[in-house]
Amino acid sequence: MFDQVLFFFNALLQQTGAANFTWGNLVMMIIGGTMIYLAIAKHYEPLLLIGIGFSCIVANVPGPPDVPGGPPVSALLYVVKEGGLFHYAYEGVAKLIIPPLIFLGVGAMTDFGPMIANPKLVILGAGAHLGIFVALILAKLVGFSISEAGAIGIIGGADGPMAIFVTVKLAPHLLGPVSVAAYSYMALMPMIQPPVMKLLTTPEERRIEMAQIRKVSKLEKIVFPAVIAVIVNLFFPPVAPLITMLMLGNLLKEVGVTERLAKTAAGPLMNIIIMILTVAIGSTMAADKFLTWDTILIVGLGLLAFLFGTASGVVTAKIMNLFLKDKINPLIGSAGIASVPIAARVSHIVANQANPHNHLIFHAMGPNLAGVFGTAISGGIMLALLGVQ
Amino acid sequence: MIPDTVYGAILLSIIDFFLSFVVISSIGFVLSLFPYLNRLGEIDEKKLKEGGH
What we know:
The complex is a heterodimer of chains A (389) and B (53).
Chain A: H1 2-14, H2 23-41, H3 46-59, E1 62-63, E2 73-74, H4 75-80, H5 87-94, H6 98-109, H7 113-117, H8 124-127, H9 130-141, H10 146-153, H11 160-170, H12 175-187, H13 189-199, H14 203-206, H15 218-235, H16 240-255, H17 259-266, H18 268-282, H19 287-290, H20 293-323, H21 342-354, H22 361-385
Antiparallel strand pairs in A: 1-2
Helix pairs in contact in A: 2-3, 3-12, 3-18, 5-18, 6-11, 6-16, 6-17, 6-18, 9-10, 9-20, 10-11, 11-12, 11-22, 12-20, 13-20, 13-21, 15-16, 16-17, 17-18, 21-22
Chain B: H1 6-32, H2 45-50
């Protein structure tokens, strides 16, 4: 009788996740909790980190095995599989439906005026992407295939949707760690970038005040998305879906006659997409999938990509200063890494600390927006060179 | 097209980095021509919004 009770109790326990809880689950739960803490206490990108952190915690609650005696399945992976609650959220990312929709929303909320107003700063959008290639070469050196190395390198583009897009095309099995690394580092840029920026600039350089830039007309803002969409579709078809949607969103915003659509794309639609995206990303952070040597390498290489990208942006700005009559504040160089508008905000804050009268945000937005195109161009060239459509 | 070797990774990086500069500079050049658009006339933003939905 007692033996039977024990047997049934044990069978019941096996149906729950408690028996399959590992130290890895605990580590990942702490990581998820840290993300939520940083979002609440430090205000580091709460829109992203709350969802990712929460779903990371849930993903590490072990569920019952798929088959009797089989390995435990994390609770969130359980709902991600076909028929599960978040199945379509995950499929939306994996089938590349979500990234173009994010770009539609980003386009509808972005004023490209600073980029149009100061075209010479556009070059910083390429200069701040050295990190992509440093990470790519290092990833190859430590044993990843060249396609995997390309996906890892694109983390340095600091553009979440583009990182997802390129990774799905080049190395879909790395979608989890690459997207987590990209979004986590983007959220942590206020911690990652300033030490590099300060290391590479003198206090005098950080205090440089830049002249006010010209006002961009409505006509220019309306023509801009059409021109860019044509250029990108003509020369970079592999990444055209993203940039085309970015430009469509921006056109909806600028024409003035589609305010409802622009507001929907930038507001409710974007909010829904963010919830789906963060849950989908966090769901890939189950310990058994995430706590691997490869993931640790990817996260490390991603950090190096951000550091080198920040440094190369600042150095490019300093090189430009050798030739410019009106000097630019080299701190805006790091904004060329993309990650709109976080990187521009970091440039502004660091400059403001050196000179409280310095309001660099508008100037930094130019290279910051150019960085989006820089990442898309790098990703497009990479896909073309690797023969991926 | 690119060999799956360290040499291939370096080659890919050099070509991609260089071409990115060329392309983004070209976009910068196109943008530098944008002020000439204003010679075509001015858009009345108020009227534009009146036609909105």
